[in-house]
Amino acid sequence: MAKSQYSFKTAVDLSKALRNKQVSAVELAQDAIGRIERHDGKVNAVCVRDFERGLAAARAADAAIARGEHKPLLGIPMTVKESYNVAGLPTTWGFPPHKDFVPTEDALSIQRVKDAGGVILGKTNVPVGLADWQSYNDIYGTTNNPYDLGRTPGGSSGGSSAALAAGYGALSLGSDIGGSLRVPAFHCGIYAHKPTFALLPSRGHTAPPAPPIIYERDLAVTGPMARGAADLSLLLDVMAAPDPLDAGRAYRLDLPAARHAGLKDFRILVIDTDPVLPTDKAVRGSIDKLASHLDKAGAKISRSSPLLPDFAASSRLYMRMLLSFLAATFPPEVYAGACAAAAALPAGDTSLQAERLRGIALSHRDWVQATVARSRLRAQWRELFNSFDAVICPIMPTPAYPHDHAPDQEQRRILIDGVPHIYTDQLAWPGIATLPGLPSTAIPTGFAPDGLPVGVQIVGPWLEDRTPLKLAELIEREFGGFVPPKMFDD
């Protein structure tokens, strides 16, 4: 079967084609299913297939379109991250003991996607516990990058990014606490948006076998992934709004409009590297090229500012708060060993690796003090966004690296311009937006010399998600966006 003209179209384009009766929802679903059946033996992105129910949803969408109905996602084929509860499908988070766990109700985001007419074709692969930038586990195996099968597609939403890059539907749902939306987008040349913290309800995005009740989760968010910038807003608007069981009893969502409508009006701070975690030549070059393009397009570009919060201090704080949160679920023996190692650290060791150890052992008193420091950080960002509309900065220091499944991530190394760095220090760049809870839109900016995708994140002001999203659209319109991998030219 030849590649359909719709295989790599955006959701916005597909919606228009559906409304104009140029294609049917069933045809779009069949095209995506055909691509999964032909190519996913190599990529292994869609770990749970739901084709029968997906085709039924597509038939229902066609009937609704014939009746003249309009819904935001009506008839759009898509996937969702394995970590979301979908009634009748397994939710494992990659944990072998829970391979047979099947929820009986949809996560709230899944329910909203279905209500909006989305056609879900399957669930995408994740690392164990969503705790890696590589997507592999003993239940479903390893997901490969469609641009180079020997490399990671990113994680933890790596199955979703690979699915989008391979043409398995126009949209996907992911989540992010350590870059899990933005890193896969970067490594697979697609788009993703980490929303302002708590903007999207997370009920049903829950590790098995926990019940789908409302949990308070520090730092973690869910969010949209796509092959086009405008699609992010389309899916965000479907997913967003308070949970009706909780804040939705009293609050309604009313996001501010984007600050500007044209590139020439944006004031942008561009950062391409930092000694805390340097970026390699390909990443720096891509950012510098984008900055030059934006400058020529009339945007006001600054390459440094005293208003930018201290990256070293905020990165150390992020490491402590992140690991304090994650360590709550560590097995007792692992937790005890980490606490002993933290106690033995020299007081003067302020490396990111040392701060992660300290975070595991953080007392509640220390955590409260850390939240005060985070409040000061948020105030600094508010001040910065009085002078700037967005900050463009790296997502990761290098393009996608070869698969490395060494069990101790702290012992893994990445090479940045030939110099080895600790694998887990890569948390620093995603953390720039995660710690203060700011919205951040990941966009592709082209390719490294070896053909691997590169990109940037656009960090915006608190609850002003529409500003980085709008800037992403303008950049895509002006300079281009997603380019399909050549291996899928069938």
TrEMBL record:
Keywords: Hydrolase. Pfam families: Amidase. One of its GO terms (molecular function) is amidase activity. GO terms for cellular component: endomembrane system. Residues 28-467 form the Amidase domain. Its EC number is 3.5.1.4. This is Amidase.
